[in-house]
Amino acid sequence: MIAIAISGLHGAGLDRVGQIALFGRSGSLAVGLVAAGLWLTPGFAAAGDGLQVTNARVPASDQIGIDLPLLMTIRNDTAEPDAILRVRCPFANFSEKHTVDRGEGAPAMREIKSIPIPENKTIELKRDGYHVMLLQTRQKLVDGETFTCAVVFQKAGTKETEVQVSRTP
Description:
By secondary structure, this protein is mainly beta. About 10% of the residues lie in helices and about 45% in strands. It is built from one helix and twelve strands. Strands 3, 4, 5, 6, 7, 8, 9, 10, 11 and 12 form a ten-stranded mixed β-sheet that branches. A hairpin with a 6-residue loop joins strand 6 and strand 7. It is globular and about 40 Å long.
């Protein structure tokens, strides 16, 4: 239930059944504010609700200061494309978004500005395609450990994501 205070609100009155009737510029403003409030209410879908990150993982490592791929599955159930802009993990100093080029010769990793997430699709970030490289690890990563990393999307915002350390990512 939403209540609207109408004291001093020009253009408001009661209709035949005693409900608040809003009209004129003030009424339009009030209706707009109510609509904005509904949009921010948890029961209504937010931009990030249609995007899920699952199966996030990194390989286990006995070394410190190395670079490791962060792999994951991303499902975009929205009608608009999105993109990964950045990733922050507590066990790495930096991250880069990469793709693998398959031009002449051997495949080569290349840094990119963002990783596209098409609308109504599921994509898999993997070593031989789009992926995130975590640079300069700060600690050893033991098989079975989990960490929380922040994956920042252009439209969906930040998704706190549980990342599993695994011997076989």
